[in-house]
UniProtKB/TrEMBL annotation:
Family: Belongs to the ABC transporter superfamily.
Name recorded for this polypeptide: ABC-2 type transport system ATP-binding protein
Pfam family, one: DrrA1-3_C
Keywords linked to the UniProt accession: ATP-binding, Nucleotide-binding, Transport
Keyword Transport: yes
Length: 296
């Protein structure tokens, strides 16, 4: 177990924004922290990164009980700040020296991270002329500069256009091979695309913590989308409202508990001599599951 968060709590005056939060993160995994606005995602990441002290609880790391955790954590805030009059090379040199990276190593390391994030060849351009996507790449570069064991990203693609999002997600996908990653996002498709584990919080409290596959197994019952040439059999209307959702007189989604119910559904359609246009198992997205968990 690489990181353990135990009963983490943070309050500002009389408002508790993180409430008794506990979860683990294994080394080499990528976990997504999901939740609505105001759920406590940013505060949680700030506490893990050592930028904010919790009121209660603790965060522990494997074999690092008495070390300053900030030395092996890379952090990209939701709204990174840059000195626009600097070039990427100047900016990363400045931050590298603040991080006590030796000058002998720093120059080579800057070249490496700029190549990793796709900014090689732009190291002497002014940051002021960078697009939002390029600035986000530079933010990733600074987070990677000291070779962190844990990379924390707060809404890394939320302000980017589709092309910029795609580029940054591809970089994160590459980084997964060598670094443990924890990132927050409200773009569920991005989490579904690149993460191994899902952590869902609401009002500062844990709603779900586990793998993507276990999340789907627990919260999504099998369902089939049915479409016929004529009106659907009237017998479908007798099913409980939570089991069948009618999209039109000719199309519906029907939930089943097991294989036997699936066979019964198909037999019902055969007995009614329904002319099937579609009989397809519904693929539940992370968004479907997220809404079910949050409303539970």
């Amino acid at each position: 177990m690489f990181m353990q968060v135990e009963r983490l709590t943070k309050a500002y005056r009389n408002i508790t924004v993180v409430n008794n939060l506990s979860f683990n993160l294994d080394k080499g995994k990528c976990a997504a922290l999901l939740g609505p606005n105001g759920a406590g995602k940013t505060t949680t990441l700030h506490m893990i990164a050592g930028l904010t002290a919790p009121n209660k609880g603790k965060i522990s790391f494997e074999d690092k009980q008495h070390q300053d955790v900030r030395s092996f954590i890379g952090f990209l805030p939701q709204h990174p700040t840059f000195f626009n009059w600097m070039t990427p090379q100047q900016y990363l040199t400045f931050l590298g020296l603040l991080s006590n990276i030796s000058k002998n190593v720093l120059s080579q390391r800057i070249d490496e991270v700029l190549e990793t994030v796709g900014l090689k060849g732009k190291e002497k351009q002014k940051i002021a002329g960078f697009s939002g996507g390029m600035k986000q790449r530079l933010g990733l570069a600074q987070a990677l500069l000291h070779k962190p064991e844990l990379l924390i990203l707060d809404e890394p693609v939320s302000a980017l256009d589709p092309e910029g999002r795609k580029d940054v997600l591809m970089i994160i996908e590459t980084l997964k091979k060598d670094t443990t990653i924890l990132f927050s996002t409200h773009i569920l498709h991005d989490a579904e695309q690149i993460c191994d584990n899902i952590i869902m919080i609401k009002n500062g409290r844990m709603k779900w913590n586990g793998t993507k596959s276990s999340l789907r197994q627990e919260f999504t019952a099998p369902a089939f989308t049915i479409e016929t040439e004529e009106r659907l059999p009237a017998s479908l209307s007798s099913l409980p409202s939570e089991q069948v959702l009618f999209h039109s007189p000719y199309k519906a989604t029907v939930g089943v508990k097991d294989t036997s119910q699936q066979q019964q559904l198909l037999q019902l359609l055969v007995d009614q001599q329904a002319n099937l246009v579609l009989f397809e198992r519904k693929q539940h997205s992370l968004e479907d599951v997220y809404l079910e968990v949050m409303n539970k």
